[in-house]
Amino acid sequence: MNLSSQRILVTGGTGGVGLALAESLTALGATVVTCGRTASGGHAVRADLAVPGEAARVVAEAVERLGGLDVVVANAGVQYPTPLTLGPDPEVLAAARQEIAVNLASVVELAAAAWPHLAAAAPAGPPGAAFVAVTSGLAYAPKQSAPVYCATKAAVHILLESLRHQARTTSPGVRVQEIVLPLVDTAMTAGRGGPARKLSPAQAADAVVRGIVRGRPVVAVGAGRALLALLRLAPPVGRRILRDG
Description:
The chain has 245 residues and is of the alpha/beta class. The chain has helices at residues 16-27, 54-66, 90-121, 147-170, 201-214, 223-233, 235-243; strands spanning 7-11, 31-36, 44-46, 71-74, 129-136, 174-181, 218-220.
């Protein structure tokens, strides 16, 4: 896929990987609308994707500003420690509900709202439009400290596989892609892992762009490639590595 002149929506695009991705795509000649809770100015839409209906509103605003959509990147995500085995803690449960709303429910809503526009942009193959979602190695093997986050990413992995099946029969011009990111140096990962273990947001964004251009259904980035290979060859070892991550 040639990203020049493409009309692209990136959620969670006002910081971290999303911001770097928006900058990379713009440098390639794409026109990008982003959204975030602190968005202001330019092509940024202020939205809280934990609120039902917000993802659909963001799609509507992006379509109005861009005149259509060619690519959607569901990048927004939150992660909190959720020690569920310690008993019902209202703050922990509230955080878990937010993870489910942002990481999973908003992606479902985003796909439903964006699909007619993506299908209109690419009515027939080869794929000329794309719905892309960012997951993690934790979608394939969970860590003990963030069970709800891991569950939402695993659910998005399955959601994308099912969307791929649907697209083959209803909208063959729309590609469905999963980007499996490793640990990236963002506010969400502060205090976890050393700098040497993390990709910079710019490095992650460049890898995402290359993945979208190449068009593979699942694009594992950096250490994510080694992890998925290890999980295929020696699942217990891979799961043990991530368990206490």
